[in-house]
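ESCALATION

Customer reports they have been waiting on this structure for their group meeting. Please prioritize. Original submission:
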Amino acid sequence: MKRASRLHPSQFQVNEAWIAFQLNDAPVHTEQDGSLNCFALMDAASCFILGAELASVVEPEPTQLQVKRLFKTGWAHHKQFPVTLFVPKGQFQNILPAEAKRQGISVVSVPESQLLVFIGEARQGYTEHVERGRPRLP
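Update from on-call: job pushed to the front of the queue and completed.
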């Protein structure tokens, strides 16, 4: 995986680069499926979330089927894949990078702190949405 310098949405054209990241800070707990993480795919220029998948917290990344669905959903927006996929350093080590490379996408690992300019607002919105849905204790 390649490395990148400081990043900002203004450096990219729409669909030039995507970002894969975990949308939630804390696991989402469900009765039926247990604890889940929400993984998302975002366009770097527009910060538009192209797709998201819920996966068990015991898995470090989405399954191969989920990754294929994420890429298919991303493809559907502009009928093309990006040149680059940014992933947080230490995350998405196997399945996601393999599928990206299979699609001809260069995978670049960066510290998650460099992705916050893109993903911070989405994470905050997701957290607020999840917390609104939780029952309030008396």
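Sent to customer with the following note: The chain is about 35% helix and 25% strand.
Escalation resolved.
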